[in-house]
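Duplicate of earlier report; Stage II sporulation protein M input re-posted below.
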Amino acid sequence: MEEQKHSFKLSKVNWIFALIIIGISALFFLRKDGINAFSLGYLAGSIVTAGLIPLIIAFIVWLIRGKKKFAGTYTFNIVLVFMTFGMITEIGEISKEKSEGVEAISNSVSELKGKINNEEDVVTAFKEHSTNVDDGLSKLIRNSTGNEQEVYINLRKFTRINNAVMIDWQSSYDSVMSPRILDYGVLKNSNEYDYQIGVLENYKSQSIKYKKHFENRISIIADLFKNIPKENQTLKGVMKGITKQDSIQMPIFKPFIKSHLSYSENLIELVDFLEKNKMQWIYENDELIFDNTELENKYLEIIDNVAKDEENINILSDKLIDVM
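Output:
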């Protein structure tokens, strides 16, 4: 007797099971990315694509088994179970990769603070930190999709802008700290005055640029994120962290950069003063000697201002490092 053949169709159990999986997946995805046109479209596409796999396999098994009753429905559920376990495993791996990326960034900040406190070369240390942060964000980008990925991509853009400004400023400050600057033994040469004024003017210019960037960084990053839905959970977390850090750092940064600007201006005034009166002072036996008391007093006044700036910078630098 020929075995009865049945048409291929999914059972109620298949539909219920599939809807449960879809519901859980949708809840997980939409909670993270927010409800918007992109996330809904991406979710719909993913569901359709993923749903075809157990459906096709179930259909093939149904054909192979001679169109027996339940041959396809059992297969559909089994494949869906394996796919679910695979999805859970993949989510776990992605979560691990993301955690490693975040941890790498956090560790890099701690390492940077340690290197600065140990008086290592700041530019080199910051470049290493920049590379570590970039690598950490790249790992987050690789393991995310949709608007979450866009958050990390634009955050990486911001950190690159931020790092470039910081490195340029630090390099200009390091140039001022060179032994050549305010070496009275070489300041009789007119070309040397031009060189030193150039270094100091660049330091002042970079300090102004750094100040402007730091004070506008919230608006800069907000502009980078403008096309990402505000309800995106990753975006909310990133903006909350940046805003909180900004509120902690800004009260210290403002007097810090103000001291640097004052320092640059007082140093420029000092070199200008020495050039203008270069025929009325000599430097011998490690001592600067002026022709008259008036010039000496003016010099001491400027030097006193420079010393105050240096003291403020040292104090505020330590405070700023603490809140990095």
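The chain has a mean pLDDT of 80.

Merging into the original ticket.
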